[in-house]
Design brief:
The strands form 2 sheets. Strands 6-5-4-3-2-1-14 form a 7-stranded mixed sheet. The protein has one domain: Metallo-beta-lactamase, Chain A (4-Layer Sandwich), CATH 3.60.15.10. With 260 residues, it is α/β, with parallel strands linked by helices. Helices cover 21% and strands 27% of the residues.
């Protein structure tokens, strides 16, 4: 297949957390596989970053949420609202949204608070993925594999594979996780949370050293650290990660684009 047909890229839209930052929006990233655009998480600032990346809400065909914390899903309702009213336009192509167990309840609760976000069945499809077992879905040009990880009860990590076998893994939020090691095995790119420096470890999150250990055990080809609290910007997190990982390494910034 031609290089044109094998396009696969990742754009970091939000490399931060819930802490307001002029540098880092809350968690979000976009994957582009051929002409299909996938959004992973939708924290505050996502739609602005999409515009800065040359993409509108109508260009997104899939939204995958790792879990329901506001810094990962807080702009989901606004995204749906904008699909009906942005620039006087409205969505005319199908948007598929997927997340772990409880997603239907989460969406219905949002509709109770914001009835204006409801989409017609011809332009919106909701998929609830397992947050307790492996889940595999096929979507034409790519497949999605998920496994539960150590954060919230609905938390899942994603592995996306294109038709040529290129793979990208997104951790979402998690503590050290055997499932994440398995899911990231031999991935071309592994986008992994690294919320705080090594000496500030908290439950439910990784540090640079732990993220590096997972990447090494999984034999990933490239590691991208993301989801930084402000303390990370005052620390040499690359040096900390190098204690456990020696492969290609990137420290995420908003609008960083990586081609597989």
């Amino acid at each position: 297949m031609s290089a044109e047909n094998s396009r696969f890229s990742v754009t970091i839209l939000g490399s931060g957390t819930c802490v307001p930052s002029l540098r880092r929006s809350s968690s979000a990233l976009m994957m582009e596989i051929r002409d299909t655009k996938l959004l992973f998480d939708c924290g505050s600032g996502t739609m602005r970053r999409l515009l800065e990346a040359g993409t509108t809400v109508f260009d997104i065909s899939f939204i995958f949420l790792s879990h329901f914390h506001p810094d990962h899903a807080g702009e989901f309702a606004s995204f749906l609202f904008s699909n009906k009213y942005a620039d006087g336009n409205y969505r005319q192509t199908l948007l598929t949204a997927a997340a772990g167990s409880g997603f239907s309840e989460f969406y219905n609760t949002l509709k109770t608070a914001y009835p204006w976000i409801e989409q017609g069945p011809d332009v919106f499809s909701l998929i609830e993925l397992s947050a307790t077992e492996p889940d595999l879905r096929e979507f034409g040009d790519f497949t999605v594999e998920t496994l539960p990880v150590e954060h919230n009860k609905e938390s899942i990590a994603y592995r996306i594979s294109d038709l040529q076998g290129k793979t990208a893994v997104y951790s979402g939020d998690t503590d050290f996780s055997a499932n994440l090691i398995a899911l990231a095995k031999d991935a071309d790119i592994f986008i992994c949370e690294s919320a705080l420096p090594d000496d500030m470890k908290v439950r439910g999150h990784l540090t640079p050293c732990l993220a590096g250990e997972i990447a090494t055990l999984a034999n990933v080809r490239k590691l991208v650290l993301t989801h930084f609290y402000p303390q990370c910007d005052q620390t040499d997190i690359e040096k900390q990660c190098r204690k456990t990982y020696s492969g290609p390494l990137l420290i995420a910034d908003d609008l960083m684009r990586i081609t597989l």
